[in-house]
Prior knowledge:
Elements: H1 13-45, H2 47-84, H3 90-114, H4 116-121, H5 127-142, H6 144-159, H7 164-186, E1 187-190, E2 193-197, H8 201-224, H9 241-273, H10 277-314, H11 317-344, H12 346-350, H13 357-370, H14 374-389, H15 394-404, H16 406-418, H17 423-458
Antiparallel strand pairs: 1-2
Helix pairs in contact: 1-2, 1-7, 1-10, 2-3, 2-5, 2-6, 2-9, 2-10, 3-6, 5-8, 6-8, 7-8, 9-15, 10-11, 10-13, 10-14, 11-14, 11-17, 13-17, 14-17, 15-17, 16-17
Amino acid sequence: MDKPVLDLTKGSVYKHIMGMAVPASIGYFFNTMYNFTDTFWAGRSSTAALAALSLAFPVYIVILAFGSGIGAGVTGIISNLYGKGKKDQVVEYFIQSIILGIFFSILTSISMYIFLNQIFSLFNAEGELLKYAVEYTSVIIFGSVFFILNFIINGLLNASGDTRSFSKTLIAGFFINILLDPLLMSGLTIRGIEYFPGMGIPGIALATVLVQAGSLIYLSSCALKLGIFRDCRKTSFIPKFNEMKEIIAQAAPAALNMIIMAAGVFVITYYISRFGENAIAAYGAGMRIEQIALIPNIGLNTALASFTGQNNGAGHTDRIREGLFKSLFLGLILFLAVMVPVVLFAGKILRIFTDNSEVLRIGVLYLKIQLFAFYSYILLFQSGSVLQGIKKPGMILWTGIYRQVPAPFIFFNLFAFTLGLGIAGIWWGIVAVNWTAGLVLLFHTLKKIRGKINTEQHF
């Protein structure tokens, strides 16, 4: 029996958003704890290993950008198809997105692997730090196809109102990773017999790739239960220009925005590297903690994109505006409930990763200042979810370019060097960058919604 698609065009807005956001948030919580596990074992290995994971983060974002971008495109297009009642077209767009995902995973793996040493050398990485960064990232790169396909399949599931399936994979992945990380890092020796040697830092990466491969198997089974493949024909597997063009048009702004975000992290890391290895390690650990507070809002973003897409397809623009305002209000409540305690206990949480006093000092400073930036992320991501759902994602890219290219150059230099605030100036620069971008994107989103309402009233 086919799994029913959730109709988000009727009923309580709060109920739909929370019904999708809660499972997604729980899943992303375990995904963040997954990253905590990686950071924990890297930190216990050495400060260089911890810093290596921080250096690898921008490359990791580039890999995920293609998958999450196409996945966002799939959610936008297919949720609109469900809203319009055109379920028979879903399989065509889904298969074309899979073809695109495989192509981009191959392209990304080859191109990034060639330039890994040069990329990390830009951040003054050398010796043990460079070695760990290259070893870890090389494994992740060649497992990129699993990451990308998981995002695409999840895009289909989200469009149907199913956020639980992906959540289950994230929860299971966390517990599997707890076992795999120390096992693959240290190897397995029983009663003096070595069954396989430890891999060190690459073992952390391999554990991630294996978890992603298992997730792909499960999510594929969930997609089959939707029954969309009944409308599948042999010709569906032939690349089609029109469908791919539409997917790319919807996916490109989100994907390019993530790539630009990766470039932005490179920019941030470049500025931070001028303050030493301890600053890099503190930034990496601080980001992990910051992700905890953002988890519930990631769930809201996921729910809002699907909610907006279906209601846009059905022509219910008033519900889209209502959904945005209610989601922003929920985000504010979650910010106050989560971020404030995280900052209060920042020092104790950071000690999970390191006992280095300088890393702790810089990390605590980062988190305290980021308290002032947090709600700007909510404005950015929820506005982006609505734009993705109404199939007008272009401004997401332009806002991303602003956040990652001219704004950091202006604010980082102003606060850190012109005003002489040092590393704290980088942290305050992040606050300024994100608030200016968040407000612009929110006003643009409201303008687009108002324009759609005026058009509907005119006709």
